[in-house]
Amino acid sequence: MIKHVPVMLDDVINHLPVKLDIVVDGTLGHGWHAWVMLEKFPNIKKLIWFDLDPNILADTKERLSKYSDKIAFVWKSYAEISSVLYDMWDIKADFVLLDLWVNMEHFKDWSRGFSLNADAPLDMRFDNASDNLTAYDIVNKYNSIDLAKIFIDYAEFTDQKSQEIAREIVRSRKSTPIKTTFDLKNILSQVGLGQKASVVIFQAIRIETNKEIDNLKLVLNQIHDILSSWWRCGIITFHSIEDRVVKLFFKQLAKQDWFSLVSKKAIKPHYKEVEKNRASRSAKYRIIEKII
Fold it and tell me: What is the CA angle 131-137-138, rounded to 5?
């Protein structure tokens, strides 16, 4: 039924607030975390789901139609949670969940350009029905300074290597546009990057395409406004940069009188989960509670 294997499902369920009326899932995907919440907590009044991918949103909406009286589907980024809650319902949430892993369906659909295992147009947008920035735009229009910054900030390459990669991209596109994943893969190969390092560069470009870190920071700054008192926000990260952003922000919040860390250290998946789903091995779950 569910194509995308949910990560840290038991940890999410075991650390939910005692009472759940309004729940927000900012990264719906195939809806497994939220589906289990609805099954285990029938008293949930409203579950608001956000997702940028219209195809996944439609698919999940149809599959979970039995809960249509409780569910609201929102085709927007989780960065807009605050405005949506206020503008549409004038409510706050008891629990907000963000699972920041990219849905595996994006990688399986090679036509979308997320994977370097097949030749496809450089897209990488989560919302490919929009006219937002694409990976093609980044690779072909960013100058070498901005490209290098992406590789430094999001791939954590050295300044020297990032600049080398950026210069080679700029040099190559002067003769012909870099249109496909294989075009880019070949350029990365020319500067000595193998499969693993190229995957990291692809990931960095995807992060920039979808403004993933920017959106994460935007929603973190909304936590005080979107949470009811004594309720929680849980975030599952998979990338060291994401986790660093969440860790530092939660740490600063916890210094204030009205917030508390549910767990001082990140919760990591049990080894049995990692054995069954290797995609979970880098996951970290952090939870903050609003106590006033």
Answer: 125
8 A C-beta contact, residue 135 and residue 206:
yes
Structure token digits, residue 96: 């907000």
Q: Are residues 97 and 24 in the same domain?
A: yes
Q: Which residues form the domain of 52?
A: 9-105+213-290
* 163 token code pair: 């600049």
Residues 6+ apart with CB under 8 A from 169: 139, 144, 147, 178, 184, 187
Task: Supply 44's token pair.
Answer: 């949930």
pTM of the model: 0.92
Same domain as 97, residue 231: yes
Would 204 be classed as within a structural domain? Answer: yes
- Using alpha carbons only, how large is the chain's radius of gyration in Å? 20
- pLDDT, tens digit, 9 for 90 and up, residues 54-81: 888 888 888 888 898 999 999 999 999 9
